[in-house]
Amino acid sequence: MRAVDLCVRYGVKEAVDHVSLDVLPNRVLALIGPSGCGKSTFLRALNRMNDMVEGVRVTGQVMLDGQDIYDPTVDPVLVRRQVGMVFQRSNPFPKSIFENVAFGLRIAGVKDRHRMISSVERALHQAALWDEVKDRLDESGLSLSGGQQQRLCIARALAVEPDVLLMDEPASALDPIATAKIEDLVSELREVLTIVIVTHNMQQAARVSQRTAFFYMGRLVEVGDTSTIFTRPKQQETEDYITGRFG
């Protein structure tokens, strides 16, 4: 996946300013930067979630498998099936655990019961949730703890077998134990997925990502190997942010 000269504007405000960035396969890319710097807007541009916001204008390209996802002929629903999204706060549906995970499969037109059961079980295994819920699949997803609900939402995104998973501060509302489970899960999932994660927690970025991109005032200031960004950044703005001089 690759963003090419990507701009996102809310009216006259330029939230993402001419950003070009490669998202490498089977790697975790962390997006860091102060609040309001454009990182979440950029993340949402990678699967056209900004389409749902009134007054947003997107220019530039996001290339996925050789196709610009903003081409008028491209169906955004199909884009979001290929590029899944997990939000800051868990948002399970008021349905059973099984139906939460099966939701995307039903939308995709899967009717074969055996395939659906198999896909739901696989997704719950991938989300490290199966052992905790296998005997309660008919219970409401809302009955789970906060950390379990977030992993349920991850399972829901994984059920349709996306190529890329976008995560917008997925652990910010969780306690340290639940956060550690999400971080372990991210590390495991990159074996089969490409992951882009927005985080305010720089220690988390250092733990889970292989590459880090620093955003400031809508611009991509610097991107590189995570260890390099945190120990030998090339740009003064990056160093100032990482060392706590602002942000």
Can you tag this structure with a few keywords?
single chain; 247 residues; alpha/beta; Rossmann fold; 4-stranded antiparallel beta sheet; 10 strands; 25% strand; globular
Overview of the structural elements:
The chain has 247 residues and is an alpha/beta fold. 36% of the residues lie in helices and 25% in strands. It is built from ten helices and ten strands. It has a six-stranded mixed β-sheet, sandwiched between helices. Strands 2-1-4-5 form a four-stranded antiparallel β-sheet, covered by helices on one side. α3 packs across α4.
Question: Topology, pairings included?
Answer:
Blueprint: E1 2-10, E2 13-22, E3 28-32, H1 39-45, E4 56-64, E5 67-68, H2 76-82, E6 83-86, H3 97-107, H4 113-126, H5 130-133, H6 146-158, E7 164-168, H7 176-189, E8 194-198, H8 202-208, E9 211-216, E10 219-225, H9 226-231, H10 236-242
Helix pairs in contact: 3-4, 3-6, 4-6, 6-7
TL;DR?
The protein is α/β, with parallel strands linked by helices. It has helices at residues 39-45, 76-82, 97-107, 113-126, 130-133, 146-158, 176-189, 202-208, 226-231, 236-242, and strands at 2-10, 13-22, 28-32, 56-64, 67-68, 83-86, 164-168, 194-198, 211-216, 219-225.
